[in-house]
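--- STAGE predict ---
source: upstream dedup step, 1 unique chain passed
mode: sequence only
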Amino acid sequence: MKKGRGALTLLLIFWTIFALFSFLENANRIIGKSFVTSDEFEWEVNSYYRDLYENVLITFDTEMAKKQIKVSKEEIRHYRNYYGSLEEQVENIVSQYDYRLQDEGLSDEVKEVVKQERDRKIEEIKKNFADDAHVEAKIRSLKEQIIDNYAEEKERGRRNFLASSNYKMFSYDLVNIDTGQRFLYNSTDVPAIFFEKFPDGDENYFPPVLTGSYEYTSGGWTEEVSSSTSTRMDTEIYMDGAFEESFALLDGSIPITLEQPKFTGTIALPKAALKNTELKRNYEGFETFKTLTYFIWVTGVITLLLLIFLIRSKKTGLQSLLPKEKSSFRQLPIDSLLILVLVGGLFSIKMIEMILSTLYQVSYSMGNGGIAFVIDLVMILAIAVPMFTVTFIGAIWLMDGIRDVERWKNAMFFHIWQAGQDVFLNRSIGIQVFAMLIIFFLAGIGFAGAMVQTELFVIYIPLFLFVLIPTLYIFLRRMGYLNRVMKQTEDMAEGRLTSDVEVTGKSPIAEHAKNLNKLRDGVRTSMTEQAKSERLKTELITNVSHDLRTPLTSIITYTDLLKKPDLSEEERSKYIDILDKKSARLKTLIEDLFDVSKMASGNVELLKQRVDLAQLLQQAIGEHEEAFVTANLDMRINIESQPIFAYVDGQKWWRIIDNLIVNAQKYSLEGTRVYITLKQQGAEAELIVKNVAKYELAENVEELTERFKRADTSRHTEGSGLGLAIAQSIVDLHGARMKIEVDGDLFKVTVAVQVAY
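--- STAGE serialize ---
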């Protein structure tokens, strides 16, 4: 039921709009007008007035026109030299006739006639160049012939008009106010549906208005008729076969003065004309169209009232035409729908105008081949009604979603705008794309224009060869290069990083290829670092497990031994001493691990002060001097005499020095020297620790700063493997730098920090 009400509403809306357009189109044509006051009848009357005036009331005076003929010096010169100079024309005639005289088949008598003809033409040409009056007479004769042709054409038009039914419909009684000549046809006293008297209330004589432009083409004649008292007839005069010169062209004019008299009297259209002439069909067509139009208006008002009633009673059924919430229509871009509705609306308006025009034709053609217009009307309606229905439903859908912000965000124009912005992210690419689109668009227009007007090919072909073809070549080359780059990018995505992406030229695609190569190098480095990280992670877990498990195992073992009741005091004291050392060892490992974790996370606060690095180093050396002697190592100290200050956290910097000295003491070869140097190098203070390693060092010295990494890979020493890692973290927190160098067994650590003045 709802869909049925909706369809009925759509039909009522269509008819209401159609009636409104009919009113706007035809109100001035039929309201308050009868057939004799209609535009159609006015056109008929004006056409009759013009034909009556030109063919009956005024005549063309041939003799007067001939007397006004003038021949100018320019016309004489043009006629005389049309085929060239005197010598050229004579030479041309001689060569033509010599060819004929060489024909051996001609008898002597015929040859004599040909010679006489040749001589006569040569004499005529000579006379043309010798006598202006002779040429003037020729031109005058041509112009007189043109005037005669025009007069004959006018006479044929007059006879045709007098024999036409249009002439016989009207009655007239007119008098020439200048000559008193009277023109009468039928009586104007009979009952008439149209009657006009001259002069009228505004003192306008017959004809009231006479305008127009007419051409006489058979002789090259042009006549312009206006309301003025004279006219000028300009023409291009053509010769045919006269004087045996074909189509000699003359530029000139024939000024003719035509009298345009005025008339007084009456013109009428008897009632009988509507019964006995073809005007009846026009009268009946007007009345039919008027009745049909009033019917459309009345029914339009009725449908409008029905629509108002349905809207007020909320039974329009339009809600059934709205899309459902889950309809795919909801995904349609709102601006696309707007464009479709606008285009559909324009087409619907055009179709309604076509319906109105066809109704007018149907009204005037009933009974006289009108069935063809009826068929046209049905076909137009079959297209217009569905188009209007779809357009109106689209308008309802549009109004339903026009306030939906999300729909506008999904608008096609918005996506196009974003796409355009993306294209111009690289201005060079954006300009190139825009230029190519313009060139291809203009190329299409140019091709269409050249097909319509072949003369444009002269312009189009150079543009095609030197603009379109190079542009197309550049476009195809860039697209081919882009495809190659994309293929190599796919190889990279699949892990094939062995070959470089091809870099050709300096285009944006080439720049992109360079960036892809950098990305490939980065990915390759990242993969190497990732493999290294995985290896170190495995080693970290293994080392942490080993270093924590060793003291923990000893603690558990000696704890179990202490539980024995038969232990002597000496053994108990020995076990407790071992437990104390292993506990201290475990504590050190855990504290170092905790410190590294805090530093890695950045959860460390520095309390920087102005610290004398030389004094700090001397204190650290003093604490470890005995250990170096015990380890049979010879320390060589080189510290500048003057203080070296830096803004550092004293405790954290002490940890760096202590870790480096302890690292040297634990991993130096016995009987060797350990060099500890502190000096100012420019704006930096450098702490250098050098020693000969006890164990063979790996080439990758950077791994020594990794957590739990030792030079003693067998892990027989007491080190935690975190000393250098902690030192590196503290150095990084201070914004300083630490460098490790290995030369064979020589191990060197350099720590540099900015000095404070």
